[in-house]
Specification:
Blueprint (H helix, E strand, L loop, with lengths): L1 H24 L10 E2 L10 E2 L17 H14 L5 E4 L4 E5 L2 H9 L14 H4 L8 H11 L5 H23 L5 E3 H18 L9 H19 L7 H7 L2 H29 L15 H10 L5 H32 L1 H11 L11 H5 L2 H13 L6 E4 L4 E3 L2 E3 L4 E4 L1 H4 L19 H4 L20 H18 E5 L8 E3 L3 E3 L4 E6 L3
Parallel strand pairs: 2-3, 4-9
Antiparallel strand pairs: 1-8, 3-4, 5-13, 6-9, 7-8, 10-13, 11-12
The structure holds protoporphyrin IX containing FE.
Length: about 500
Amino acid sequence: MWIALLGTPILLAALALLLKHINKTYFILSLTKRVRTEDGSPLESKVALMPGKTRFGNNLDILNFTPASVFNFVRESTAKAKGQNYLWYFLYAPMYNVVRAEEAEEIFQSTKLITKNVVYELIRPFLGDGLLISTDHKWHSRRKALTPAFHFNVLQSFLGIFKEECKKFLNVLEKNLDAELELNQVIPPFTLNNICETALGVKLDDMSEGNEYRKAIHAIEEVLIQRVCNPLMYYNWYFFLYGDYRKHVQKLRIVHDFSSRIIERKRQQFRQKQLGEVDEFGRKQRYAMLDTLLAAEAEGQIDHQGICDEVNTFMFEGYDTTSTCLIFTLLMLALHEDVQKKCYEEVESLPEDSDDVSVFQFNELVYLECVIKESLRMFPSVPFIGRQCVEETVVNGMVMPKDTQISIHIYDIMRDPRHFPKPNQFQPERFLPENTVNRHPFAFVPFSAGQRNCIGQKFAILEMKVLLAAVVRNFRLLPATQLEDLTFENGIVLRTQQNIKVKLTKRVT
Ligand code: HEM
């Protein structure tokens, strides 16, 4: 009895001391996984340490998050770090947050840091081992096999598809003259139809399952966002018990069955056409995405599941990213009459009949490209990307333990006032060739950089130019949404809680 009474204060004092120490070091559950500097200097000299709100590292800081609070939490953390990169400590590992181009460069250029982090595991049921998620040998061989599908000649053959879809889009606009138009409703069908026809070779509008497929993709994204915002949902058992697991499985089946059926149909056609031969000039033929994959299958480089994963990856990566960028670019054009006027003057130089405009002529729309880039800088479709250390790795002079998660905040890198003065102002002229000469090469990275950069960036720019040139040429855009009205959200892509609206009038001059 006496021993117990005496022992209690000693125990409490020991516990208090331990908690004090833990509080000082900001983490409790990742004691074995500390980041240290390579040269033994204090860690604070290389990175800002972010104290957690509780003694449990940063684990409990992000419970019960919504897409909007995730966005704000990251922005507030970046502001607190005062221009430095910063560290969080989570349950099993540290997370290194990179907000500076200078340090991001080393990660982008690294041949070791190509494995994606834990967030991407949430997308794995949808995309399997497709290009976005796979790593090491599988990623290298697939990237090599798929690169020809984005060759200039192939892009040129997609131009007709983009123009055809654009005409349908202009018809929709004609029907909405002088009314407020919700861009979030009308843009996504345009980009989904484009990617479906270029990746799979089928017209979504002509297919009875088209609508069901569209809705299923949307539902999958909703579930993904639910999981991204709650770290507990990263555990499959928790997601199974408390998340929209059943809805997820059901929608995944719809999407996977759809692509699988089309792949099977295309495989039959492929065999009949005997693709893989040389063209009339004796050159080896280049094919669009699915054909490229079927040719690789014929050479034993990929199996049916692999083809499905890659096709689903293209559909996913090529759809929402371009929609988001188009929506923000149209909003910025509506909000900046002077910029819109300059775009109009530039596109006026194109042949009157849009059917006659070539890829070269679209490439020459330099100012329009500056406008797209400035929109991507301020509103990057992919606001952050992730990597992880698969073994102990030295990164930016720090020794990162195995499993350290790395988050590269593209959004913050591109709003760094050292590289983009007055970063919250929309100034497309920043991207005129004469104004980019001295800029850090990794300060503008909306498509990521290095060997894991976006394979579809030229595709995306061409697709967006086709639509933007046609809209600016035919209509005047007026604002119906102000930037201050918007609440931003971190989903898989950058989103806003409110739909973005513009007004259109027919352009007379
Ligand atoms: C505005 C449009 C787009 C933006 C901003 C964008 C951005 C990005 C970014 C930031 C990454 C790196 C992702 C990461 O490291 O996690 C990426 C990768 C990728 N993107 Fe895009 N993307 C766009 C359009 C497209 C299109 C149209 C396609 C396909 C047609 C596409 C296909 C891919 C693929 C397959 C990857 C993975 C590449 C690899 O890891 O080898 N993207 N994209």
